[in-house]
Amino acid sequence: QAYLSYSNVAALAHLAAKPGWEITRTLDDIKIWTLEEGDVLSFKVEMQVKIPSPLAFSLLSDFTLRQEWDKHFLACEVLQAVSEEDKIYYVRCPPRRGHKPRDFVILVSQRQPCKPREPYTVAVRSVTLRAVPPSPEFSRSEILCAGFQIHRKSSSSCTVCYFNQATPGVVPYLAANLAGSSKSIEDTALECKKFLE
Question: Which residues of 18-36 are buried (b: 16+ CB within 10 A; e: fewer)?
């Protein structure tokens, strides 16, 4: 479990540091970037938020609050507190037209910065848990690597970056949005910003 938590955090840092991110959309306080590598599509949403970084960290690392701003989360419950910084959650998503509702079992690892310039980190990845096998009512989905990095700007503002490395299974959900106007990602980012502020 310690290795899983470490690799969860390391994978997010690695994704964030990759070269080749291309900006696809700019709003007032929100920028959307994408990175294509073979059949893996990653995106990054950068938000300027007017609250202190420790507060943003505490709000974003509690995934039971996620459904307050993310309409892709129907329900989210803690299955297991692995440690103070690592929890396993069960997430249910609403059904899409013609599809079964999706569900996820995810490990969320939160880390405070060790050095002043480092970001706060909330890393997310799918895990398997014997206690929660896939159910026929849901389509069990997988998150390869996702999460937040929160960079301090001043005592009362921060930059929140959300990353998601989309597996081929998630790409159809995103492709339509990215081809259109990144609308769903954009709306979710605006809701997230509103929730935080």
Answer: eeebeeebeeeebbbbbbe
Helix, strand, coil percentages for the chain (3-state, nearest 5): 30, 40, 35
The percent of residues above 70 in pLDDT, for the chain, comes to: 91
- CATH topology for 1-196 is Alpha-D-Glucose-1,6-Bisphosphate; Chain A, domain 4 (3.30.530)
Using CA atoms in the order 68, 57, 123, 138, what is the torsion angle rounded to 10 degrees?
Answer: -10
User: Which alpha helices (DSSP H) does 119-182 contain, by range?
Assistant: 171-180
> If 0-12 CB within 10 Å is exposed, 13-18 middle and 19+ buried, where does residue 186 land?
middle
> Measured between alpha carbons, how far is 194 from 54 in angstroms, rounded to an integer?
17
pLDDT of 95-138, one tens digit each? 877 788 889 999 999 999 998 889 999 999 999 999 999 999 99
Domain parsing of the chain, residue ranges: 1-196
pLDDT surpassing 90 at residue 177: no
Go through 57-93 and write b for each residue having 16 or more CB atoms within 10 A of its CB, e for each that does not. Answer: bebbbebeebeebbeebeebeebbebeebbbbbbbbb
- Pair of tokens at residue 12: 């997010």
